[in-house]
Design a protein that fits this description.
Blueprint (H helix, E strand, L loop, with lengths): L4 E6 L5 H15 L3 E6 L14 E6 L7 H8 L8 E8 L7 H10 L3 E9 L11 H24 L11 H8 L2 H8 L7 E2 L9 H5 L5 E3 L3 E3 L8 H5 L5 E2 L13 H5 L7
Parallel strand pairs: 1-2, 1-3, 3-4, 4-5
Antiparallel strand pairs: 6-9, 7-8
Helix pairs in contact: 1-4
Bound molecules: flavin mononucleotide.
Flavin mononucleotide binds next to helix 1 and strand 4.
Length: about 260
């Protein structure tokens, strides 16, 4: 069903999803399936090749996923049974993604062949980082990713229709209005500690929705989707939320998120 070439579209805030995607690519390649990898934030949905099977990978956010990820999925062109698989990463539970995404894709004519949810370390403002525990979670996540690839190749996967709570949660979570109001509680906006900032501009470069204007110091506009990149990768911990204490979590180096992907080369 997958053939010898697939496209893979992914977004990863802090690297968990990217680790899973890379592990899957390694295992697809070992079985002779060539994978072209694309970043969701750089993808024009109209240019997606619907003649080729593809995968979608993203992190769970507030029982759903980030609005810009949904925007791409909802803007996909109509297809004639193109096989699609999905994988998401989460810290514990996702209620509103798998079923609603299947609905969106099925209505557009895609053939939803497999969905897999993988528990990874929490990246949502962790109070502390337990390296040992995180390593165990990542190892078990990578194992699940390898098994998923094997099952996809053998045709042994499925994509559940509407999991528990998903419909209501979809409406509660999957819209920009809700996401922005979660983020923009007054006095809790992401900002910069000018005393620490070294003006490197990495936060602005990493932002997937171009929400950070790098003047002398970074300035945030109003369309933050809370992906955690600016907070997690600042080399001097200068990106802060006033009154919130957290430890930076990242699973990869910043350059792995900004470098060209296999599909772009
Ligand atoms: C804003 C935000 C909301 C999140 N909401 C959930 C959630 O509802 N359920 C869950 O299990 N994990 C949640 N997480 C945790 C992430 O889904 C998880 O750590 C994921 O693996 C991060 O992947 P990434 O490093 O590729 O961005 C949330 C993380 C963030 C930043």
């Amino acid at each position: 069903m997958l053939g010898t070439h697939i496209n893979f579209y992914y977004y990863s805030g802090t690297g968990n999803t990217l680790l899973i995607v890379k592990e899957m690519i390694k295992n697809f390649s070992a079985k002779g399936i060539q994978v072209s990898l694309y970043k969701i934030e750089d993808t024009d949905p109209k240019k997606i090749d619907i003649a080729t099977p593809f995968g979608i990978a993203f992190p769970v956010a507030f029982q759903s996923t980030l609005p810009f990820v949904w925007n791409l999925l909802e803007a996909l062109p109509r297809a004639e049974k193109t096989p699609v698989f999905m994988v998401d990463t989460m810290m514990a539970f996702s209620g509103a993604v798998v079923g609603p995404l299947k609905k969106v894709l099925t209505e557009k004519g895609y053939n939803c062949i497999g969905a897999c949810e993988i528990v990874m370390p929490n990246n949502w403002l962790p109070k502390q980082i337990n390296e040992e525990e995180n390593r165990k979670k990542i190892n078990s996540g990578l194992r699940k990713a390898r098994e998923y690839v094997e099952n996809l190749i053998e045709g042994n996967t499925s994509w559940g229709r509407i999991p528990f709570l998903s419909k209501g949660l979809y409406h509660a979570c999957c819209n920009n209005f809700v996401m922005q109001h979660i983020n923009l509680a007054e006095g809790r906006k992401i900002t910069v500690d000018k005393g620490k900032c070294i003006k490197c501009g990495l936060c602005s470069k990493l932002c997937p929705v171009n929400n950070i204007n790098m003047k002398e110091y970074p300035q945030w506009y109003d369309s933050c989707e809370l992906c955690m990149r600016c907070l997690s990768f600042c080399p001097v911990n200068a990106v802060i939320i006033p009154g919130k204490k957290f430890k930076q979590y990242r699973a990869v180096k910043a350059k792995e998120l900004t470098e060209k992907t296999l599909g772009e080369n």
